């Protein structure tokens, strides 16, 4: 375990969340689960999602996630963007603008193709602005549209 670990406070969906996360992303597993009694509800867990270690707790309705914290998924290509986006949608996630999507447990994810990051790191500010403007019009990020904006700038 690293020195710093994200600790997620769920209101009551920890068990379902970790089952969904670990089945959706590779290099994921549930490491430890604590229950309230032998067969009671999950109270806390340690788990890995996409190689990142997390701790989670069911804290009750007092706790809610905000967009001030999100999980960034660095996708290899459009196919991978589509795969994760569709899995989140199938689970009941709510799409937002610019490749952001909030899962049914309240946690927000950024599903981002690596190509987007390459395009916005171009030294030409006109090309970067064109890509950023195109991205701001999107819900799910689309590599072909981003590249078109870049090439036409």
What's the quick description here?
The protein is α/β, with parallel strands linked by helices and 153 residues long.
Explain how this protein is built.
- There is one protein chain.
- Helix content is 35%, strand content 28%.
- It is α/β, with parallel strands linked by helices and 153 residues long.
- It folds into two domains: 64 residues, 2,3-Dihydroxybiphenyl 1,2-Dioxygenase, domain 1 (Roll), CATH 3.10.180; 89 residues, 2,3-Dihydroxybiphenyl 1,2-Dioxygenase, domain 1.
- A four-stranded mixed β-sheet has the order 1-4-3-2, with helices on one face.
- A hairpin with a 4-residue loop joins β6 and β7.
- α4 runs antiparallel to α5.
- The protein is elongated and about 60 Å long.
- The chain starts with 6 loop residues before the first strand and ends with a helix.
- The model has no long low-confidence stretch (mean pLDDT 96).
Please report the number of helical segments: 5
- Terminal-residue CA separation: 45 Å
The structural domain count equals 2
How many strands, what sense, and barrel or not for the largest sheet? 4 strands, mixed
The geometry reads as: elongated
Poorly predicted parts = none
Strand order of the largest sheet: 1-4-3-2
- Give the CATH level 1 class of the largest domain: Alpha Beta
Q: In percent terms, what proportion of residues is strand?
A: 25-35%
The CATH homologous superfamily of the largest domain corresponds to 2,3-Dihydroxybiphenyl 1,2-Dioxygenase, domain 1
Mean pLDDT across all amino acids: 96
């Amino acid at each position: 375990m690293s020195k710093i670990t994200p600790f997620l406070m769920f209101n009551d969906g920890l068990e379902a969340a970790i089952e969904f996360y670990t089945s959706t992303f590779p290099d994921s597993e549930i490491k430890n689960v604590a229950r309230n009694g032998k067969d009671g509800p999950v109270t806390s867990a340690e788990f890995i999602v996409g190689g990142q270690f997390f701790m989670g707790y069911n804290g009750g309705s007092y706790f809610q996630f905000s967009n001030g914290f999100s999980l960034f998924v660095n996708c290899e290509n459009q196919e991978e963007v589509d795969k994760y986006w569709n899995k989140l949608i199938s689970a009941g996630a709510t799409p937002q603008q610019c490749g952001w999507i909030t899962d049914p447990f309240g946690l927000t994810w950024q599903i981002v193709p690596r190509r987007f990051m390459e395009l916005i790191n171009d030294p030409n500010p006109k090309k970067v602005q064109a890509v950023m403007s195109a991205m701001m019009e999107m819900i799910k990020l689309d590599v072909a549209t981003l590249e078109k904006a870049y090439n036409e700038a």
